[in-house]
Write a structure and sequence with these properties.
Mean pLDDT of chain B: 72
Distance between the termini of chain B: 37 Å
Shape of chain B: extended
Number of helices of chain B: 2
Mean pLDDT of chain A: 94
Shape of chain A: globular
Largest sheet of chain B: none
Strand content of chain A: 5-15%
Strand content of chain B: under 5%
Number of helices of chain A: 13
Largest sheet of chain A: 10 strands, mixed
Oligomer: heterodimer
Helix content of chain A: 25-40%
Order of helices and strands of chain A: HEHEHEHEHHEHEHEHEEEHHHH
Number of strands of chain A: 10
Strand order of the largest sheet of chain A: 7-6-5-4-3-2-1-8-9-10
Structural class of chain B: mainly alpha
């Protein structure tokens, strides 16, 4: 018997929490996509003090009341619940992402956590493991351990030292780039390739995009993703010029470098997803498109939550009221917040549906649609930037395909 | 870039029409971004598995479904 989620509270937004009728969707034949990504908040604290951090510096402050490290009983319950979910939905592949805070603060406990969760997966279900770190604690012995465990490591870096250190600071106020450089120097060695997932870079339009891209490529990452800084209609992004599209302009400079290269220097998820969507394919990015989001977050106290970037919207925005200690993961599949991210165009605002680009932008990142007045059924606060970026990419790809078709015609 | 700003979403559908384009011939062995994207598209459409959006706060280590 699956316990239904607690009744919504008045602080929850109108949409989807109070206005999306999940029962009606199910009656009409919709069924949820099982979770495939499991984000494990193995450590709740961080050794950096980044000024844009959605966990510590924005609306939600739930980290304060949670255990610093995921206790053994929560690890055990998490493993059991993920195994149960994989078995129930006959999944042949799940992804476990060790996250925080800073997951490397969990130190020597990490191997036991990974081993316990992998051991709970049913036969025939592969458990790929990733870890997203700020890199400060990534030294040779830990790297050896993680590589032996088959963990793919992602590192957050916002470009060259002068750009990175504007936002990504140590607790003493100094920049973190020196420590990250040491980590990435290790990780970019050929013998570490299997342990290197890639880089995450948060966009800062006040920096030079070309210099930023060069700084990232200097570490030879297999892949990069560029993230829009978290913002919403109550806390909009910085725009020096009203009506300007500085985030798109910054990305377009990098796109043109990346796209025009004879050999793609690294995969870039945001750009690849937009091209795929323009060609009739799908997106693997949360930032564009309408692919279902199948991510469950497990906090250090066992709480089952929605994607953590929603913490930028309001206090408690990720909560489902469920816990791996008492509830199966399937219970979260009926939460309106989870459902809203799996129903494609049915989650979009009327203004979005009237725009021809909506199948490509998908209204952007869910967190960026938030307005305290009505919740998450709004255009992205980055709507103008997305329109400009997508239109630019469309023009470049259309032109090249036409040329290729012409060249290949007899 | 000004052209992007001036025209905006100019068509009823943003999808690029690839009808009649011989994708198999346009899948060059080069590693340009367009070539990689075309190969991914062919792979994606030939696999039955539903494509899901990956967790955005982890580096993109999984370009194709398995």
């Amino acid at each position: 018997m699956i316990r239904s989620r607690p009744e919504p509270t008045v602080s929850e937004p109108l949409w989807p929490h109070r206005a999306l009728d999940v029962a009606e969707l199910r009656t009409a034949g919709w069924s949820p996509t099982p979770f495939r990504d499991f984000v494990l908040k193995v450590h709740q604290r961080c050794n950096l003090a980044c000024d844009y951090c959605y966990i510590y510096e924005m609306s939600d402050q739930s980290w304060r009341s949670r255990p610093a490290v995921m206790p053994a009983e929560v690890v055990e319950a998490t493993a059991r619940r993920i195994g149960e979910h994989a078995r129930r939905h006959d999944l042949d592949h799940v992804r476990l992402i060790l996250h925080g805070g800073e997951p490397l603060l969990a130190g020597r406990r990490l191997p036991a956590m990974v081993t316990a969760i992998r051991a709970a997966l049913p036969e025939g279900c592969r458990g790929d493991v990733g870890l997203q770190t700020n890199g400060v604690l990534l030294r040779e012995p830990m790297l050896d351990t993680l590589q032996e465990l088959g963990v793919a490591i992602g590192v957050s870096l916002d470009g060259p030292p002068e750009a990175n250190d504007q936002h990504r600071k140590l607790r003493n106020g100094r920049g973190s780039s020196g420590a990250v450089h040491a980590a990435l120097t290790l990780l970019s060695r050929p013998e570490r390739r299997s342990a290197y997932a890639g880089l995450l870079c948060t966009i800062d339009p006040s920096t030079d995009p070309g210099t930023c891209f060069d700084a990232l490529l200097a570490y030879d990452p297999p892949a990069i993703d560029f993230l829009f800084p978290h913002a919403n209609h109550a806390t909009p992004p910085r725009r020096p010029e009203p009506g300007g599209t500085p985030y798109a302009d910054w990305l377009i400079t990098i796109f043109d470098r990346w796209y025009g290269a004879e050999r793609q220097p690294a995969r870039v998820r945001l750009f690849e997803s937009i091209i795929s969507l323009l060609l009739g394919g799908h997106s693997r990015s949360e930032q564009v498109g309408l692919s279902p989001v199948a991510v469950a977050v497990i906090e250090t106290d066992g709480a089952i939550e929605q994607v953590d970037s929603l913490k930028s919207a309001y206090d408690g925005a990720c909560a489902t009221g469920l816990s791996v200690l008492t509830d199966p993961l399937d219970a979260a599949l009926g939460h309106p917040g989870v459902v809203a991210r799996q129903i494609g165009t049915r989650a979009l605002a009327g203004d979005c549906l009237a725009c021809p680009l909506h199948t490509v932008c998908g209204a952007g990142h869910y967190a960026h649609r938030y307005d305290p007045a009505n919740g998450f059924r709004n255009p992205s606060v980055y709507c103008a930037d997305l329109e400009r970026l997508i239109t630019h990419i469309r023009r470049r790809v259309t032109s090249d395909l036409a040329r290729l078709a012409e060249d290949s015609s007899p | 870039m000004d052209a992007d700003r001036a025209t905006g979403p100019e068509t009823a559908s943003p999808l690029i029409d690839v009808t009649g384009i011989p994708l198999d011939q346009l899948l060059p062995s080069d590693d340009s971004a367009l070539a990689v994207s075309l190969r991914d598209l062919v792979t994606m459409t030939s696999r039955p598995q539903e494509i899901v959006a990956a967790f955005g706060n982890f580096a993109p280590d999984d370009p194709l479904p398995t």
